[in-house]
Design brief:
- The protein is elongated, with a radius of gyration of 24 Å.
- It is an alpha+beta fold and 198 residues long.
- α2 packs antiparallel against α3.
- The strands form 2 sheets. Strands 2-3-8-5-6 form a 5-stranded antiparallel beta sheet.
- The longest helix is centred in the last third of the chain and has 20 residues.
- It has 3 helices and 8 strands; from the N terminus they run ββββββββααα.
Length: 198
């Protein structure tokens, strides 16, 4: 029903079913993992009105017991998600549905758990903020704000040609130039948000 993927490793589809609605993947050598992708295989959908809360657990250095943290969720409408796990703090856990059902087989093995829960309940849960991965949408929002800020800043110094006093040590750029650059940049971002990487 679920798959788990870590960059540079084979896809895991061998989730252990620890109860009727809970599944766990073992993640060996988790200290060297930055991101994990959890996805539905597409063979079995969630029952109507249900989704999967995705949790991450690693052994607590003090007690050795599992520390579970909510990463986010997947649903039939959002069948995959990527989570950043490298920034999670050891020993800081929260409420979780796994209890002691799944315990890590070794101190260097973490676990990714999927708990099938009602969509209403999933919407109420708050994942750990450090697990969120920046999205193209947030990058586009940042870029838009940056462009707006530059244009507004440069425009605040605008003077008409009649107001200009000759100053041989200063260079003036027509505001139409900044506006044209602004519009071109916006158009290119809309066409391909990664154009600047080339």
């Amino acid at each position: 029903m679920f798959g788990c993927l870590v960059a540079g490793r084979l896809v895991q589809t061998d989730a252990v079913q620890v109860s009727t609605d809970k599944f766990v993947f073992n993640l060996p050598d988790y200290e060297n993992v930055n991101h994990v992708v959890v996805f539905m295989l597409g063979t079995v959908p969630f029952p109507a009105g249900m989704g999967g809360a995705v949790y991450f657990s690693f052994p607590d250095p003090a007690s050795g017991g599992p520390v579970w943290q909510l990463l986010g969720f997947i649903t039939n409408d959002k069948p995959s998600a990527i989570f950043k796990i490298s920034g999670l703090k050891a020993g800081v856990g929260g409420a979780h549905p796994f209890g002691m059902m799944a315990s890590s087989p070794s101190p260097s093995v973490a676990q990714v758990g999927v708990s099938v829960e009602p969509l209403d309940q999933l919407a109420q849960q708050i994942p750990v903020s450090s697990a969120a991965v920046s999205t193209v949408d947030s990058f586009l929002q940042f870029t838009q704000k940056m462009l707006d800020s530059l244009y507004n800043f440069a425009s605040s110094f605008a003077v008409s040609q009649a107001q200009m006093t000759p100053n041989p040590t200063e260079t003036f750029i027509p505001s139409s130039c900044i506006l044209k650059w602004y519009e071109n940049f916006q158009r290119r971002m809309a066409q391909n948000p990664n154009f600047w990487k080339n």
